[in-house]
């Protein structure tokens, strides 16, 4: 019962979670800028360089630690779901997927951004990114009190599946693709989890046989992804592109508040952020 009550955050908890989210957003911006800066300067840029930027920004603002081992996944590594920041080089023309959030006074934040290492998305990368972003938006648009947990996931999945069909990655109607689950070749995880004292916070997703309904004060993530590993049905120019976009959301009376809104999310906003640093 106590665990269940903790799903509804009080004002003090929310103040801490807002601040944690803000610090993490700043850390992602710092990593974006450093990526562009080092690449422009022709320096040897590795996953751990960006991991170091994230850590620096967390600690500089008083966050005690990362809420989980940061993922900095260069190029094809983005298609490996639980990859950690290692030593792979970040190359011009490739994407890097960064999943990192700080823990502040016991509370977690959890953000994923996927950026072009050099600061400009290629046409193929942009196609995958925009579909993932549309899935993210569809999930966000639904987030309000009374909506059932699975509806958020289903909304994101529907957009992703349609995108896979439109790009020629999957054959058949949307209903057939959803029914067969063939979209799981490219989207194999859930869209959301509770967020709080733990990054994957405790709390039921169902009440009996029914999916739980969203309530005021609940905090959770929205994190659709699109991962394209080489396969017979994959065109060469989509190979090894992996994208995830993750934000933290609070259910409010009006609908929702994005706690991580300060972190650039659109293609234009990310490109602008990476172009503006010196
Ligand atoms: N960083 C863990 C997750 O996104 O669920
Ligand atoms: Mn998450
Ligand atoms: Mn995450």
Topology diagram in text:
Elements: H1 2-5, H2 11-40, H3 47-60, E1 65-66, E2 71-74, E3 95-100, E4 102-104, E5 107-108, E6 111-116, H4 123-142, H5 149-166, H6 174-180, E7 206-207, E8 210-211, E9 219-222, E10 225-227, E11 242-244, E12 247-251, E13 256-258, H7 267-276
Antiparallel strand pairs: 1-4, 2-3, 3-6, 4-5, 7-8, 9-12, 10-11, 12-13
The portion of residues assigned to helices is: 25-40%
C-alpha Rg (nearest Å): 18 Å
SS element count, helices: 7
Strand order of the largest sheet: 1-4-5
The percent range for strand residues is 15-25%
The secondary-structure class comes to alpha+beta
Report the sheet with the most strands, covering strand number, pairing sense and barrel closure: 3 strands, antiparallel
For the termini, the CA-CA separation is 52 Å
* Contiguous runs where pLDDT drops below 50 for at least 5 residues: none
Shape: globular
Bound molecule kinds, no repeats? glycine, manganese (II) ion
Order of helices and strands: HHHEEEEEEHHHEEEEEEEH
């Amino acid at each position: 019962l106590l665990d269940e009550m903790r799903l509804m955050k009080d004002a003090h908890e929310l103040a801490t979670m807002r601040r944690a989210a803000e610090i993490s957003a700043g850390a992602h911006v710092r990593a974006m800028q450093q990526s562009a800066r080092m690449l422009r300067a022709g320096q040897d840029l590795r996953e751990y360089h960006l991991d170091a930027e994230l850590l620096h920004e967390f600690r500089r603002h008083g966050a005690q630690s990362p809420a989980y081992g940061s993922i900095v996944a260069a190029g094809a590594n983005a298609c490996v779901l639980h990859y950690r920041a290692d030593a792979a080089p970040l190359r011009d023309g490739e994407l890097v997927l960064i999943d990192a959030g700080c823990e502040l006074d016991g509370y977690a934040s959890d953000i994923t951004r996927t950026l072009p290492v050099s600061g400009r998305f290629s046409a193929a990368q942009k196609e995958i990114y925009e579909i993932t972003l549309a899935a993210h938006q569809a999930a966000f648009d639904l987030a309000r009190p009374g909506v059932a947990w699975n509806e958020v996931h289903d909304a994101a999945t529907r957009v992703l599946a349609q995108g896979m069909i439109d790009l020629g990655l999957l054959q058949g109607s949307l209903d057939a693709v959803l029914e067969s689950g063939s979209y799981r070749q490219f989207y194999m995880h859930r869209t959301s989890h509770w967020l709080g004292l733990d990054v994957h916070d405790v709390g039921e997703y169902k009440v009996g046989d029914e999916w739980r309904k969203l309530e005021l004060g609940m905090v959770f993530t929205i994190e659709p992804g699109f991962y394209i590993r080489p396969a017979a049905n994959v065109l060469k120019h989509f190979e090894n592109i992996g994208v995830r976009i993750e934000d933290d959301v609070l259910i409010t009376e009006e609908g929702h508040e994005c706690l991580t809104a300060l972190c650039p999310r659109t293609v234009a906003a990310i490109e602008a952020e990476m172009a503006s640093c010196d």
